Every structure is written in C-alpha cells, then in structure tokens.
C-alpha cells in the first residue's frame, strides 16, 4: 500500500471504530523498551502479589511484536463504561449495601470489546487483504496502558490508570495488533501536575509512589485476584467494597468530565446495582452463577464472593440480623471463608458489646435523673 493509501486507511479505521461503539482509537508502534526497566522493578519488589502470570510472561508484555510476529502497529481503542445512574455515593455511604466497582455492573467487557475489535479487523481486511491481525482485551500479556498512552488516548495518571482529558478514566482499553505500517499518532501532554489526590484517598495506601501500585495492598486485587485469605490488616479498611474499588478514580478531578456510557451491555444489572449485603450473602452458588452469568464477577467464584461479603458484614453496623446470618452460613463453607466469617462475628460482637454498654449508661443516666427528680 502507498503512503496515501495508508493515511486514508488510518483515517477510516478511526471512523469505523466510532461506528462500532468505541469512544476513541489511536495508532502506535510496538516499541515499549522504556517500560521494561519499570516492569522489571515492579516484579522484583513483588508488587504483583499472587498474580504469577505477570512474572511468567516476563518482558513479553513490553514486546507486542513477539505475541504476533510481523506486528508493526497497535491500534488502541477505549470504550466508556460509567453507568448513567452510577449511584456511587449512595452505595459507598451505606455500610449495609455492597459496593461493586462500576465497571462490573453489566456484561463482561472482555467479550464486548473483543467482538468489536474482530469486526474492526474485518473492515480493515476489506481494504487490505494482506492484513494479519489479532485482538487483545486483557487476554494476553500486553502493557495496554503504555500502548494507549503512546497512541494518544490519554496519559498515565499517578494511580497508574489512563486518564483522558475529555472523559476522565472510566473506560476500558483494547488492542488490535496489525502487520500494516500505518501512520502513528502522537502522545498527549500529561495533566496530573502536582495533584496527589489518588495517593492520599486510597483506603489501603496501595499507591506506594506516583505511578506505582503495590497490588498486594489494593482492594481490587484483594477482592478479585487473591484466592486465599485477605490479610487482617486490610479488612477494616475495605468497608463495604465487595468487588473492586473505584476510590482513586472517584477523587480524580478529571473524572468531573466523565460522561455516562451509552453502551447497553454496560447497563447495571438490577441485583448488583445497589444491593443489600445480607441479600447477597444469602445467595447459594447456583443463584450466584445465575445472576453473574456473562458478568466479570463470575470469575471470582462463589467462595471468594462470600469471603468478600463476610468482611463487609464485619465492617457493617452492629446488627443481630448480621450475626445470625453469619452464624447460619458458618458451617456450610470451607475453612478459608469460615475464617472471614469468624472475623466478622468478632467485629460484630465487639460493636454489639459497645452498643450495649452505651445503652446501659444511658439507662443509668435516665434512672439517676428520674430519682433526683422524685426527691
């Protein structure tokens, strides 16, 4: 293809991406050599926790051309997911409800984006028969955020997520590796400046320095990726967050510009939008699998679901109903979940004792006042 042909094709790729529902598309090369020392340092410090697959693939994450030999360009796309009625403050401020990261309220984004990327490849191939392409949506070791930044979709924020000047950070990323020498886009100017709001707001202080996240401390990692017990030091800090955490995005000033997604697949499922913790805790595995069919939540399985909710119930206000629900579930779960239920019961017991002491003091004060009045 001639240079004018490639220029025209790059222009049309962005039009096709918009027609397929992507909010933006950009094109970049495959050189991520500058990211390799950063990735090596992050892995060496153990910040990936139990995500051994991060280490298994080594530097391939920074070498897209090794994933698909012959790759010359990466088409990076983004798609907004923030629901129109996100109810973020409503749920986070109610400790009797379970907070689910807003990206997980609808259909699994992996399938949505991958299918659209395949359609984009088909459109490209109609103009370039020699195309060899492969789509990725968290499905292979690809450093998607540096690629997206290089393609001009935004800049890497201090919370390590990509930020777009017009639409904040509530969006998914996907990539299409191609063997065409398309013209590349330019990165955009970084816009965080001196702001450190995301570092200070993080409940577990997981952002250990600007642009560096220790996953072992991150609530998203603890509730989604970690398969075993959640360290006790982090349980009280999790509050009612039962699947993921959005705090570092919620505090980001750029998300004032985040618009609602118009994608029907990302519309919140009623049972997940603003759910009561006790209702969620009552689900058996069959019901859990039914409600989460086609949802990213299903991947954590029922036992981790119960583990996370048990922690949230331990953090909930003192309630005999919560204690009863925890006790009823205790003998029907494995040792890992039972450990978290016992922790929650201990938290509830302490709160109930404190509540009883407060009530007793109030009663004594009332009795003393009435006695003085009678004299």
From TrEMBL:
Residues annotated to bind [4Fe-4S] cluster 2: 202, 218, 245, 248
UniProt-annotated binding residues for [4Fe-4S] cluster 1: 192, 195, 198, 252
Cofactor note: Binds 2 [4Fe-4S] clusters per monomer.
Location of the 4Fe-4S ferredoxin-type domain: 180-212
Pathway: tRNA modification; tRNA-queuosine biosynthesis
GO MF terms, alphabetically ordered: epoxyqueuosine reductase activity
Catalytic activity, EC: 1.17.99.6
Residues that coordinate or bind cob(II)alamin: 61, 138, 156, 162, 173, 220, 245-246
Family annotation (InterPro entries): 4Fe4S_Fe-S-bd, 4Fe4S_Fe_S_CS, QueG, QueG_DUF1730
Places the protein is found: Cytoplasm
Cofactor needs: [4Fe-4S] cluster; cob(II)alamin
Keywords: 4Fe-4S, Cobalamin, Cobalt, Cytoplasm, Iron, Iron-sulfur, Metal-binding, Oxidoreductase, Queuosine biosynthesis, tRNA processing
Reactions that this protein is recorded to catalyse: epoxyqueuosine(34) in tRNA + AH2 = queuosine(34) in tRNA + A + H2O
Active-site residues (renumbered): 138 (proton donor)
Pfam family, one: Fer4_16
Family: Belongs to the QueG family.
Role, per record: Catalyzes the conversion of epoxyqueuosine (oQ) to queuosine (Q), which is a hypermodified base found in the wobble positions of tRNA(Asp), tRNA(Asn), tRNA(His) and tRNA(Tyr).
Subunit structure: Monomer.
Name this polypeptide is given: Epoxyqueuosine reductase
Species in which this protein is naturally found: Oceanimonas smirnovii
Higher taxonomy: Bacteria, Pseudomonadati, Pseudomonadota, Gammaproteobacteria, Aeromonadales
